[in-house]
């Protein structure tokens, strides 16, 4: 039987608790999952103050406490690195001397490889690379998680528990992190674009922008909730809505005729190409 102690986490440090790091931090707090303490760092007092009211969180402003990253990392068992990708090597060099034996370092930085982390932290470093998406803010993220050679099964299970506080977790080899980012990472933008397009079509049919937004947004929200609650495949739910020789069938035929599957393949291929350019420093 799994006990509370089995699921608890060691002390957690979030270095660079910006939008994504802050979302994960808040999800962890709201979940009530026991930890050995949580410390978050940000460059300015204003950003630190935004997290200072969270229960059990020590929020540090680096402009006032320059050693904040090192202090936080040195007292943590899990260190989330949420600074901008270009800042990662310098941050890792800064915290390396302070890391505890067995500390697990988790990247939130898009495009920064495990090899980059290991090259700075040294051989045997326990490193995982993550790719959460923006619905983490509302606890509905999909997070891709890839482990470096130094991370064992217990490390992966522990970090998985952390990210499950903000949604679902998918464990993948690192070579699939960039392809995953083109689906779940960029995916919210695709959905928002479809909502925009449907709302625009509604305006074209004489509805006000407010009415169009309500219809488009609530249709996507409702359909997503139905998909989640039913446990059915999307294709099956689509078939149930699409009555033979009905209006929806006619509309879906137009969309399928536009080869949406090929269009999404092309779009995600373009995103993947750009991810590889960024990883190469282009």
TrEMBL record:
Keywords: Amino-acid biosynthesis, Cytoplasm, NADP, Oxidoreductase, Proline biosynthesis
Xref: Gene3D superfamilies: NAD(P)-binding Rossmann-like Domain, ProC C-terminal domain-like
Cited InterPro entries: 6-PGluconate_DH-like_C_sf, NAD(P)-bd_dom_sf, P5C_Rdtase_cat_N, P5CR-like_CS, P5CR_dimer, Pyrroline-COOH_reductase
A family per Pfam: P5CR_dimer
GO molecular function: pyrroline-5-carboxylate reductase activity
GO cellular component, one term: cytoplasm
Residue intervals of the Pyrroline-5-carboxylate reductase catalytic N-terminal domain: 12-111
Known EC number: 1.5.1.2
Family: Belongs to the pyrroline-5-carboxylate reductase family.
Function: Catalyzes the reduction of 1-pyrroline-5-carboxylate (PCA) to L-proline.
Name this polypeptide is given: Pyrroline-5-carboxylate reductase
Biological classification of the source: Bacteria, Bacillati, Actinomycetota, Actinomycetes, Micrococcales
Gene from which this protein is expressed: proC_2
């Amino acid at each position: 039987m799994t006990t509370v102690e089995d699921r608890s986490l060691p002390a957690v440090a979030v270095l660079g608790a910006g939008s994504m790091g802050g979302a994960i931090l808040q999800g962890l707090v709201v979940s009530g999952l026991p930890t050995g303490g949580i410390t978050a760092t940000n460059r300015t007092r204003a950003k630190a103050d935004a997290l200072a009211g969270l229960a059990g969180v020590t929020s540090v402003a680096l402009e006032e406490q320059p050693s904040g990253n090192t202090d936080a990392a040195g007292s943590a068992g899990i260190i989330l690195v949420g600074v901008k990708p270009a800042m990662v090597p310098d941050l890792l060099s800064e915290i390396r001397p302070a890391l505890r034996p067995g500390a697990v370092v988790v990247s939130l930085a898009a495009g920064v490889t495990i090899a980059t982390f290991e090259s700075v932290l040294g051989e045997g470093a326990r490193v995982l690379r993550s790719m959460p998406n923006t619905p983490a803010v509302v606890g509905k993220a999909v997070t891709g998680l890839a482990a470096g050679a130094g991370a064992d099964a217990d490390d992966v299970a522990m970090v998985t528990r952390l990210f499950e506080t903000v949604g679902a977790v998918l464990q993948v080899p690192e070579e699939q992190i960039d392809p995953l980012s083109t689906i779940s990472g960029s995916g919210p933008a695709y959905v928002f674009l479809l909502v925009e397009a449907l709302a625009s079509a509604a305006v074209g049919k004489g509805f006000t922008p407010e009415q169009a937004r309500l219809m488009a947004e609530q249709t996507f929200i409702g359909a997503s909730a139905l998909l989640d609650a039913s446990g059915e495949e999307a294709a099956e739910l689509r078939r149930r809505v699409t009555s033979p020789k009905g209006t929806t069938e006619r509309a879906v035929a137009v969309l399928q005729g536009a080869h949406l599957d090929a269009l999404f393949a092309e779009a995600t291929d373009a995103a993947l190409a750009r991810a590889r350019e960024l990883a190469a420093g282009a």
